[in-house]
């Protein structure tokens, strides 16, 4: 539902919403991130946010992951409502250094810092092209889509429009090449 309702909006807004989604909190163990009771916050969500969703391998350090995990502490699920809640007493309010910037960061700050990274637009553009067209897109295709992402402040609709209108999208390399699962097809 989240991707259906926000999939054509801003990518940063989508990443904040994913960070606050109860399903993601449970799946990637954000709920075990508790600064009050552990000296080592759970890094699962921070790692997936950087590696899979936004930057790709090699565009962050292990320290960036550890510090982002600290910024993501205090996130829990209310057992009565099933909704994510923020528990201030369980959040790490100490200074954190992520991508060479230091501050008392929280989940939204982590997403803001990620969006400032040059690799983000390229990674997102490549993932979109790979999902909709074909694997291993040409560098010029990725560069053009990444520029559109940046020029439009990471709004997804303009980049999808550009992608779907590109000649390369209708090239024989792109047509009838993906076998989608029923969930992907829907």
Give the helices and strands, then pairings.
Blueprint lengths: L1 H5 L4 H10 L1 H6 L16 H11 L7 H10 L3 E3 L6 E3 L9 E3 L2 E3 L3 H9 L2 H15 L6 H13 L4 H10 L16 H4 L1
Antiparallel strand pairs: 1-2, 3-4
Helix pairs in contact: 2-6, 4-5, 7-8, 8-9
Question: What's this model, at a glance?
Answer:
With 186 residues, the chain is mostly helical. The protein is 50% helix and 6% strand.
What attributes characterize this protein structure?
50% helix; 186 residues; mainly alpha; two-stranded antiparallel ribbon
Overview of the structural elements:
With 186 residues, the chain is mainly α. 50% of the residues lie in helices and 6% in strands. A two-stranded antiparallel ribbon has the order 1-2. The termini are close together. The mean pLDDT is 90.
Oligomeric state: single chain
The share of residues in helices is: 40-55%
Tell me the strand order in the biggest sheet.
1-2
Q: Main beta sheet, described?
A: 2 strands, antiparallel
Total number of helices:
10
Segments where pLDDT lies below 50 for 5+ residues?
none
Shape: globular
The total count of strands amounts to 4
Order of helices and strands: HHHHHEEEEHHHHH
- Average residue-wise pLDDT: 90
Q: Into which percentage range does the β-strand content fall?
A: 5-15%
What would you report as the Rg, rounded to the nearest angstrom?
18 Å
Structural class: mainly alpha
Q: Span from first to last CA? A: 12 Å
